[in-house]
């Protein structure tokens, strides 16, 4: 056999070369479906298993699991992908895991891009920002609440109170609203702040604290206060649940069929006691009476309640259809931080401590009355440092 040069050899071999395959052409939609399936194959090759559903899984694994379910359901997709399914993923059955997720269309996990007209299976239209991903990770890190039995009745009560109007929901506004005992609605679940650790300053110079947050689905999270704040801000439907309303304590005027039941009164003492003299402008007695204020204070000079001295009426507010004692207790609770610690001898020489006197400016008392009228007073307390009403959790 004579030697052949390379060109002749190539010519000989060309006669036996297999016929070239005609290059397949795909529509843009088919190309997107193929590309999406290749994402699933890469996951399989990297992890040695199919993607599975479950809240504890990576957000993209959950997407691939939902996508694979959909590809298996659509016969046109199975036919298209047969030649690409080198691992037999379309027919592979593995050990049963969590049930397939039925997710809200607005959720990333329902984003089966490319399986609808004009969609791109490789483009996640609702891909979240870095902060949103961190929020999703917080959700994924929730643990089962082992003592949920003691919290379950609380959630039932809150739901009942929301239904009957004792509680209402309002938009979340301030980090200070996050405090032990507070309820919120975030991503469709009611959560309860059961515990709060000591407040610290994070590396960014902002205050934060570790929380124990219980969710009404029986899970809990040890998230940071700012993580909960971020989730509430990012959730368009995020809400705070108000404390139980005390009812219509006030009315600017009596409604039909409703009778006037009392008056809030604010008094100043004319006592010459050194403490009273020093703080007379801001030292007030706050009370509620179902009778006439004039009758109530007629014998002030003989009563230790009035510091055994005459008083002047600084302000009055009419109240309608209320329990005067409960209303008075509410006002005293709001201003408890400003209650004056003063001891004086009564008519018999016994030392007594009048408990209805507070170091509070009159304009703040007026503000408190307005907040009781609009039912927001339960969210506030008096802060002596700023001499104003602040939301619970602020100025601490």
TrEMBL record:
InterPro entries: Phage_T5_Orf172_DNA-bd
Pfam families: T5orf172
Matching SMART domains: T5orf172
Domain Bacteriophage T5 Orf172 DNA-binding per the UniProt entry, residue ranges: 278-372
Protein name, as recorded: T5orf172 domain-containing protein
Organism: Sphingobium wenxiniae (strain DSM 21828 / CGMCC 1.7748 / JZ-1)
Organism taxonomic ancestry: Bacteria, Pseudomonadati, Pseudomonadota, Alphaproteobacteria, Sphingomonadales
């Amino acid at each position: 056999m004579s030697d052949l040069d390379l060109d002749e050899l190539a010519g000989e071999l060309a006669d036996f070369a297999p016929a070239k395959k005609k290059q397949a052409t795909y529509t843009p939609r088919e190309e997107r479906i193929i590309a999406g399936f290749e994402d699933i194959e890469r996951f399989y090759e990297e992890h040695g298993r199919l993607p599975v559903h479950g809240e504890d899984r990576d957000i993209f694994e959950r997407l691939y699991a939902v996508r694979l379910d959909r590809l298996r359901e659509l016969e046109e997709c199975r036919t298209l992908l047969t030649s690409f399914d080198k691992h037999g993923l379309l027919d592979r059955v593995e050990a049963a895991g969590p049930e397939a997720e039925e997710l809200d269309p607005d959720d990333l996990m329902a984003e089966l891009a490319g399986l609808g007209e004009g969609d791109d299976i490789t483009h996640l239209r609702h891909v979240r920002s870095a902060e949103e991903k961190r929020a999703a990770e917080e959700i994924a890190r929730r643990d089962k609440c082992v003592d949920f039995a003691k919290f379950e009745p609380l959630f039932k009560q809150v739901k009942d109170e929301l239904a009957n109007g004792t509680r209402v929901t309002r938009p979340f506004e301030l980090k200070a609203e996050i405090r032990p005992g507070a309820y919120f609605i975030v991503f469709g679940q009611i959560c309860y702040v059961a515990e709060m650790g000591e407040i610290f300053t994070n590396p960014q110079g902002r205050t934060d604290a570790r929380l124990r947050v219980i969710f009404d689905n029986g899970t809990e999270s040890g998230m940071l206060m700012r993580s909960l704040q971020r989730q509430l801000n990012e959730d368009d439907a995020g809400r705070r649940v108000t404390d139980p309303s005390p009812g219509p304590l006030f009315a600017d005027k009596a409604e039909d069929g409703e009778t006037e039941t009392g008056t809030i009164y604010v008094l100043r003492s004319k006592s010459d006691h050194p403490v009273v003299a020093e703080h007379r402008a801001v030292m007030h007695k706050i009370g509620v009476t179902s009778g006439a204020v004039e009758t109530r204070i007629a014998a002030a000079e003989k009563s230790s309640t009035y510091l055994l001295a005459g008083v002047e009426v600084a302000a009055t507010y009419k109240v309608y259809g209320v329990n005067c004692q409960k209303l008075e207790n509410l006002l005293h609770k709001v201003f408890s931080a400003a209650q004056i610690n003063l001891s004086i001898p009564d008519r018999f020489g016994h030392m007594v401590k009048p408990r209805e006197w507070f170091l509070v400016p009159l304009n703040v008392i007026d503000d408190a009355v307005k907040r009781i009228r609009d039912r927001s007073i339960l969210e506030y307390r008096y802060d002596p440092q700023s001499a104003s009403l602040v939301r619970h959790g602020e100025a601490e």
